[in-house]
## 1
Amino acid sequence: MKKILVLHTGGTIAMSADEDGAVAPTDQNPMAGFEKLFDNQLIIESEEFANLPSPHITPAVMLNLKNRIQQAEEDGIDGVVVTHGTDTLEETAYFLDLTLPNNIPVVVTGAMRSSNEIGADGLHNLISAVWTAASDDAHDKGVLVVMNDEIHTARYVTKTHTTNVATFRTPTFGPIGLVSKHNANFFQELIRSEICDIKTLVEPVYLLKAYAGMDGTLFDAINQPNTKGLVIEALGAGNLPPATLPAVQALLDRNIPIVLVSRCFNGIAEDVYDYQGGGVKLKQMGVTFCQGLNGPKARLKLQVGLSAGKTGAALKEFVSNATS
Ligand code: ASP
């Protein structure tokens, strides 16, 4: 019988609502006891790894989680499910995807409705995630996110709605599978990417979002002696307002790596436009274009690359292509 480890980290899936509808963490995880639903089918071990709302999750917590999952594989666990708050779920899932040299499936899930709300989705998502982690077909697909009967890659999934249970979507590429009853059905393969089995974290790496009329103020603010990197969610295909350029150049002059993604929901960033602030000029300045990732994930990729000791061309190569 397969052995699945469920690591609870907190979030709405572990919370309850009071009479006024305010949602807060609980002492007793409402998912406790769900293991009996798998009697005679799977061996389920559960662990309260943390009880944090996901806005409290940091890369340091993600690194501890990665270490715990590696230990689980050494201990003979066949698959791991992580329950997590949905606000930063995609970031933890992608951090694990970038750093885990795992062979066992790792599936992250959560809930949009707390345990005692009508239509609560937590238990259903947890059951779907366990069946996915137990699936022979879940190997070699990177870390997976299972929510609302869909299987997404950690690399491309994102939270798209503040409250709807169908919030997790994969723009441009779509989900790679569906969960039906006890079966995880896969329809797409993920192109493998480099794993960085990091032990420590390089910080701080910042993320800024571009807007019409943006100037250099925010770029100057993060141009600090200890700044290690910056990701910019740029306009359209990958362009910036011209008033930002002197401050961007000042960061590059200090050899601070700058990675650019698009703030658009769909598509990839490319050096298309050859006007002041256009992508062609930004690339010539030394900005690295990252294709397919959103801003928070590109930020993690840059941080993980730096934490792996990558610099210069090797760092550019690692960050520039989502599949490298
Ligand atoms: N604010 C909650 C969290 O991320 C949302 C959720 O879990 O769905 O912890």
## 2
Amino acid sequence: MIRTVSTKPYSDQKPGTSGLRKKVPVFQQPNYVENFVQSIFDSLEGYQGKTLVLGGDGRYYNREAIQIIIRMAAANGFGKLMVGQGGILSTPATSNMIRKYKAFGGIILSASHNAGGPHEDFGIKYNSENGGPAPEKITDRIFEISKKISQYKIADVGPVDLDKLGTTKAGDMTVEVFDPVKDYAELMESLFDFEAISAMIKGGFRIQFDAMHAVTGPYAKEILERRLGAPDGTARNYHPLEDFGGHHPDPNLVHAKALYDDVMSPSGPDFGAASDGDGDRNMVVGKGIFITPSDSLAIIAANATLAKGYKKGIAGVARSMPTSGAADRVAEKLGVGFYETPTGWKFFGNLLDAGKVTLCGEESFGTGSNHVREKDGLWAVLFWLNIIAARGESARQIVEKHWAEYGRNYYSRHDYEEVETDRANALVAELRGKLASLPGTSVRGMKVAAADDFAYHDPVDGSVSEHQGIRVMFEGGSRVVFRLSGTGTSGATLRVYVERYEPDKARHDLDTQEALADLIAAADDIAGIKSHTGRDKPSVIT
Ligand code: G1P
Ligand code: ZN
């Protein structure tokens, strides 16, 4: 039985950098999920009888939302719905399933690295048939529809047993509950040299992977322990929990500090890694060295041919604008394409689909390639293990040699979280107002070479995305970038990205914050961060 239910629109269902993210109680309002899901379906054409992939990172409200979406997909005419067992499916694995099984699209339930629980965050994101996040023209349409929606369709069918593998029916629609790990693990095995990595592990190389009680636990258990033979316990915090054990499943130096400390201790493992809520982010740490995501992209690009899936070489590299320029110099040396895109993975999709780039990365712990259309946490970890195994050198040696060859980009991001929205907007407005007058002036003894509000011209579809972050570039390759987050759920988050290029090998062992001290001070001089936000220091430094 299909019912058409009358509903009233909500005004706040605008998808952000990665879908719609709100606190759980917002999603629990009457018809809130239903309205948004119907708006997604109404923004699409031609899905009748086609397949929809569905899954989430296991956070609070995942299972409830899945049941609603199953009933709505059935009522709206999808032919088949494929859902990960237990409602679990990482973001990169969702992307793979959509591509591999030629689905029409997929819905991912996650708020990524944000905390989970009854009063924390939840999110819904739609991915298109290429496996990547819906492009802006679709997310804009979803928002427009959500503001006018008056009814949605839902089937009166009982809940699907999400824990039992196999196929059932929800009305006329087939529902397949599948193993969320198997296809993904096979994909990884096709890209990397598992024999070389296992031999290295057998030879005593010790890895510690922190799944942060989020979605990658089952993936890491299967791949690192079962397939690569790492000892039991290599994957820690591997049970996905609805509240991630009360922590932020955010793999960075703040939230994965315990892992970092373990790797740094003399008796600790040789290599540590962590992933986030939905499995698309990664943090990699070698003994004695934290590898910044920007450097990670550059080093993977420089060593890509060591992995079997990339041995023919890469077509090009793309990075988000705030990501450091380390990868640019690798692309230049390799003589391959290089692209600078706005923040958010969706901007990489066209470049990947058009074959212009093979590797992509963001400073926010996101790295990926054309194997899927999302960033991929475990993929990055396996790439590093493959490079280490192939080169027979430690992560630290590999990084230091890379700097010696290409120069080092000191890099840090300072976040001011939960700033009052008006104050954050005022800061940005003032900054925009003075952009034109900055070039040629000196700040803390550094000369401003250029300043702009980044606009991206997509070379594939010609679309233009404006106001993507304010860049102030200094002579010599240093810069500061300011932008407001598009993923926060309360107030505004100001992100300040600071970067200094240092070609001289003799100055490659400075403390990052000290190396950037002048630029950090300059950022405040330019934007009046302290006076606008009322904060005397950032909430998070990564
Ligand atoms: C943040 C990151 C961005 C990433 C996004 C989704 O977005 O900065 O690189 O793509 O999360 O994981 P922001 O909050 O800055 O808009
Ligand atoms: Zn994520």
